């Protein structure tokens, strides 16, 4: 039975995923005072331990490009900062267009990305084939490529930030559930956990796929929905593929990891949610296999090693939610990353920590603030480049 | 069969021949123990180990297709077979220098972080070292994928061993039409029952128990035919396999499981070892002694040796070493000797040998039960998980039956367990309701005490906790020392259990070691989620199953 070291904390972070851990590190570095992280699972049991490790800066929205760019810089220096090597390999992201409509979409993204000073490239089919050897003839009419995007190995990143948090005096309570938030006169007074009640004025909801569930426990309704995504890994091979490859039409994405495995997934379709929990469905296995061999026929004889699944925390407009919830001051939302939490965590955590400390957050509230869901007049078009 | 023409194939550019139906592994073993692989990280020499298509010791490239298991492949005329994962050859692999340079292992978690400018070079070298084979040749893709096999059946029996065959025969006698799936290359026969040569890789119970949608089984037939089965009732008779053991040099070529030794010594063939140390003390060791007596020089047992095996050994004039620790296997490209130490005393002594045959622990094959979400229980007798079953063998998942050694039934009761399940499925309860003898459930596992004592013995050298991914035991100990707890986290920290065998040869020992380190029962250390597919399954076979088609009825 876990016992907590203190009865009162400056902030309680719910969720020991990459974002919760990173946020706690930022708070501790800022000298915020005692910070507690609770997570009912084990370390890396959620999406932070189940994702494909992609880190990309190609987005439709400038604000997201900037966050992603900061994250790339953070992951580049991660090994020297945290002592663990996440093997962040900048092999680029290759987006494939199957038809003119997809290509037009990618061109809009390309314009945004280049206007932010990143050297994204528009590719013709030959350019695509050079980056994706063995692609089936006619499988792509073009694409975009940004060489400084990349992939990493999520686990060492989790261990690195976790151990840094511990060194900075953050208390990480694993296997402990945040059960409810005690509110007195519109302010947070305490959090009830399965290891006892702790007083605090700030709560960070970094619960990923369970963020809506936890918000309810604080009496708040948020429009986030968890969606189950599946992923598989093949037998390890010698290196043959440098970039992460993603296709907008069906959400196919895959990359070759440092270990040589091809790891990737597909946008959910009917049947994928059929198996419960973290299990895998036969529908995913067969659809993913067909999509992969359709694109790269030479892989037909390659074995699928294992498949697993995890939850995305999706929002209606495709943007994450970062900031103080206006309905309950001190309740900071840090969720809704829709499968992109790992890649944005380093940059996002800086803003989450500022929100906890009551400092100004340099993010467009119309895009990121929890308040955006409380009004009806929306001005920002939704993000639609959501795969990979 | 002896009269059938031999198959001729090329192995590393040299002409070779094999008898029809003979595996590539036994064909290559004619010249001695085949050495066709290097390990994935340290490029240590690796030989065939399990003989059952799980380990990575016999992976070869066949006609441009990587990672083909020689023990599961029957050569075809004019096949081109090459070795993988070595620079020069598996005997002289330049990359093997990393094994010498890093006697304590390479720390990829904390290493290679500085200087920043070297990052791309580190990536290049590590990527080159990792992986087994080169990607498939584009030409390999032209091999046609046969249309998949789809069936809807009343009862699917997974596994055609003693209990599965008994279940199928009894189902037939009750007027039911069972369908047997078996992954072995030489299929068992059950009179009047169709036996399909398929490996079941993904298994789900009915989506909605209220509807009779049935179980969904996905599988494949070598090399790339997809199989999809819908069955109202499933009898899982996946049997058991010989487990591994931790000691220094436990991955050396020549360290074999009992199954591996038998795969290398088919009837009428001289095995590629003649002075083996057999590890084990129960009926399995006795059986292996009977099969391989001329080639066994000593029997070593973690615990006591029962009188029956002792008598048998004395008839064969094989010396016994009961209650003995196996501390080390020495020899680089082949085991040359083992270091032993009598339990409770101090002296380490050596025995010369050319193989170590592990038969100390017969482990169940439980993946399908875990996948189906059946309730499992820890049984200390072997130190493994088994499904919780009724007397008739029904698991906590309605319609899913577990029989034979996969359900913890001891060999003598194997056939009876299959028959009882068949009787229950047919709605005709057996008259014999005496309990079947099963693996002991309570108490400590014998190996727990063994490992505790082994830990106190001074030891050095590479102990490979996970042979597929080359994870060293020292990495598991380091993860523990840093405060990481539970097998799921240790798996993610070290990579243990994420390789080709899906944890078959690392997980059982890792659970015992972690139980010892964490000072709690193995059942509290947890278990790794068993993820489909059960064995690596070709993308082509799975992809072909994506086109929906109406299932055909039982023929």
In short:
Chain A has 388 residues and is of the alpha/beta class. Chain A folds into two domains: 1-89 and 149-224 and 315-388, FAD/NAD(P)-binding domain; 90-148 and 226-313, D-Amino Acid Oxidase, subunit A, domain 2 (D-Amino Acid Oxidase, Chain A, domain 2).
Secondary structure layout plus pairing:
The complex is a heterodimer of chains A (388) and B (555).
Chain A: E1 11-14, H1 18-29, E2 35-39, E3 54-55, H2 62-82, E4 93-97, H3 100-115, E5 121-123, H4 125-131, E6 142-146, E7 150-151, H5 154-167, E8 171-174, E9 178-184, E10 187-193, E11 196-199, E12 203-205, H6 211-217, E13 225-234, E14 244-247, E15 253-256, E16 262-265, H7 282-295, E17 303-314, E18 321-324, E19 331-335, H8 341-356, H9 365-368
Parallel strand pairs in A: 1-2, 1-12, 2-8, 4-14, 12-19
Antiparallel strand pairs in A: 3-7, 4-6, 5-6, 9-10, 10-11, 13-16, 13-17, 14-15, 15-16, 18-19
Helix pairs in contact in A: 1-5, 1-8, 2-8
Chain B: E1 7-11, E2 14-18, H1 24-28, E3 37-38, E4 45-46, E5 59-62, E6 65-69, E7 80-82, H2 97-101, H3 119-129, E8 149-158, H4 162-173, E9 178-181, E10 194-196, E11 198-204, E12 215-221, E13 225-236, E14 240-242, E15 255-257, H5 258-264, E16 276-279, H6 283-292, E17 296-300, H7 307-315, E18 320-321, E19 324-330, E20 337-342, E21 348-352, E22 355-358, E23 362-364, H8 367-372, E24 376-379, E25 384-387, E26 400-402, H9 414-425, H10 446-456, E27 464-466, E28 471-472, H11 473-481, H12 487-494, H13 507-518, H14 522-525, E29 537-538, H15 539-544
Parallel strand pairs in B: 1-7, 8-9, 8-13, 9-10, 13-26, 15-22, 16-17, 16-22, 17-18
Antiparallel strand pairs in B: 1-2, 3-4, 5-6, 5-7, 11-12, 12-13, 14-23, 19-20, 20-21, 24-25, 27-28
Helix pairs in contact in B: 4-9, 6-7, 10-13
């Amino acid at each position: 039975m876990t016992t907590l070291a203190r009865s009162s904390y400056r902030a309680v972070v719910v969720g020991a995923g990459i974002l919760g851990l990173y946020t706690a590190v930022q708070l501790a570095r800022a000298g915020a005072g005692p910070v507690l992280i609770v997570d009912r699972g084990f370390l890396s049991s959620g999406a932070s331990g189940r994702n494909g490790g992609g880190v990309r800066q190609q987005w439709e929205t400038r604000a997201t490009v900037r966050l992603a760019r900061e994250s790339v810089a953070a992951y580049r220096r991660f090994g020297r900062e945290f002592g663990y090597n996440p093997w962040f390999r900048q092999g680029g992201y290759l987006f494939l267009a199957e038809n003119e409509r997809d290509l037009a979409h990618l061109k809009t993204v390309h314009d945004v990305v280049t206007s932010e000073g990143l050297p994204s490239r528009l590719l013709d089919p030959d350019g695509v084939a050079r980056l994706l050897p063995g692609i089936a003839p006619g499988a792509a009419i073009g694409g975009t490529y940004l060489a400084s995007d990349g992939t990493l190995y999520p686990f060492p990143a989790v261990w690195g930030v976790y151990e840094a948090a511990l060194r900075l005096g953050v208390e990480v309570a694993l296997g402990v559930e945040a059960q409810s938030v005690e509110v007195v006169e519109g302010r947070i007074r305490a959090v009830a956990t399965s290891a006892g009640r702790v007083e605090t004025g700030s709560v960070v909801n970094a619960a990923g796929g369970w963020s809506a569930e936890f918000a309810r426990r604080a009496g708040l309704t948020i429009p986030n929905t968890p969606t189950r995504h599946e992923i598989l890994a093949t037998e390890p091979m010698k290196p043959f593929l440098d970039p992460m490859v993603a296709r907008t039409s069906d959400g196919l994405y895959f990359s070759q990891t440092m270990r040589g495995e091809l790891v990737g997934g597909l946008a959910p379709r009917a049947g994928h949610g059929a198996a419960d929990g973290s299990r895998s469905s036969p529908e995913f296995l067969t659809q993913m296999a067909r999509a992969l061999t359709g694109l790269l026929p030479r892989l037909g004889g390659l074995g699928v090693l294992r498949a697993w699944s995890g939850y995305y925390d999706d929002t209606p407009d495709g943007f994450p939610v970062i900031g103080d919830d206006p309905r309950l001051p001190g309740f900071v939302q840090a969720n809704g990353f829709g499968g992109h939490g790992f890649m944005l965590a380093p940059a996002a955590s800086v803003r989450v920590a500022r929100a906890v400390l009551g400092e100004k957050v340099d993010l467009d509230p119309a895009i990121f603030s929890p308040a955006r869901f409380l009004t009806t007049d929306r001005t920002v078009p939704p993000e639609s480049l959501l795969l990979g | 069969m002896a009269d059938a023409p031999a198959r001729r194939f090329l192995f590393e550019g040299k002409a070779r021949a094999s008898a029809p139906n003979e595996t590539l592994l036994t064909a290559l073993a004619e010249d001695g123990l085949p050495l066709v692989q290097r390990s994935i990280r340290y490029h240590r020499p690796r030989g065939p180990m399990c003989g059952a298509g799980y380990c990575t010791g016999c992976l070869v490239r066949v006609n441009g297709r990587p990672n083909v298991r020689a023990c599961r492949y029957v050569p075809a005329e004019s096949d081109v077979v090459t070795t993988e994962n070595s620079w020069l050859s598996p005997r002289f692999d330049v990359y093997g220098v990393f094994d010498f340079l890093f006697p304590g292992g390479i720390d990829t978690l904390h290493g290679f972080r500085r200087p920043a400018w070297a990052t791309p070079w580190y990536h290049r070298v590590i990527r080159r070292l990792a992986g087994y084979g080169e990607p498939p040749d584009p030409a390999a893709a032209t091999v046609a994928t046969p249309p998949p096999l789809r069936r809807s059946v009343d009862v699917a029996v997974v596994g055609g061993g003693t209990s599965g065959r008994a279940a199928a025969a009894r189902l037939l006698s009750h007027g039911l039409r069972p369908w047997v799936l078996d992954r072995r290359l030489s299929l068992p026969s059950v009179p009047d029952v169709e036996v399909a040569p398929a490996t079941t890789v993904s298994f789900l119970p009915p989506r909605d128990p209220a509807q009779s949608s049935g179980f969904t089984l996905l599988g494949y037939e070598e090399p790339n035919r997809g199989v999809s089965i819908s069955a109202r009732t499933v009898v899982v008779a996946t049997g058991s396999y010989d487990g591994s053991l931790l000691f220094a040099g436990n991955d050396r070529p020549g360290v074999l499981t009992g199954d591996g030794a038998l795969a290398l010594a088919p009837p009428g063939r001289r095995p590629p070892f003649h002075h083996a140390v057999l590890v084990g003390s129960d009926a399995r060791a006795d059986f292996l002694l009977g099969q391989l007596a001329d080639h066994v020089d000593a029997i070593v047992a973690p615990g006591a040796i029962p009188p029956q095996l002792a008598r048998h050994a004395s008839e064969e004039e094989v010396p016994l070493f009961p209650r003995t620790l196996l501390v080390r296997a020495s020899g680089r490209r082949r085991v040359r000797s083992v270091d032993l130490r009598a339990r409770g005393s101090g002296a380490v002594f050596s025995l010369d040998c050319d193989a170590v045959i592990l038969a100390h622990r017969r482990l169940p094959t439980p993946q399908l039960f875990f996948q189906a979400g059946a309730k499992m229980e820890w049984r200390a007798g072997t130190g493994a998980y088994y499904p919780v079953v009724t007397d008739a063998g029904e698991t906590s998942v309605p319609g899913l039956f577990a029989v034979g050694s996969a359900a913890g039934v001891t060999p003598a009761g194997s056939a009876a367990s299959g028959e009882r399940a068949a009787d229950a499925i047919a709605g005709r309860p057996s008259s014999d309701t005496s309990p079947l003898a099963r693996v002991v459930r309570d108490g400590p596992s014998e190996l727990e005490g063994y490992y505790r004592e082994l830990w106190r013995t001074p030891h050095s050298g590479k102990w490979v906790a996970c042979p597929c991914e080359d994870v060293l035991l020292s990495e598991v100990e380091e993860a523990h020392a840093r405060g990481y707890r539970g097998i799921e986290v240790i798996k993610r920290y070290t990579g243990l259990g994420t390789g080709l065998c899906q944890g078959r040869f690392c997980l059982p020992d890792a659970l015992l070691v972690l139980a010892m380190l964490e000072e709690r029962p193995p059942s509290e250390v947890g278990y790794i989620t068993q993820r489909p597919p059960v064995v690596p399954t070709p993308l082509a076979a799975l992809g072909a199953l994506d086109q929906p088609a109406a299932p055909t009825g039982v023929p």
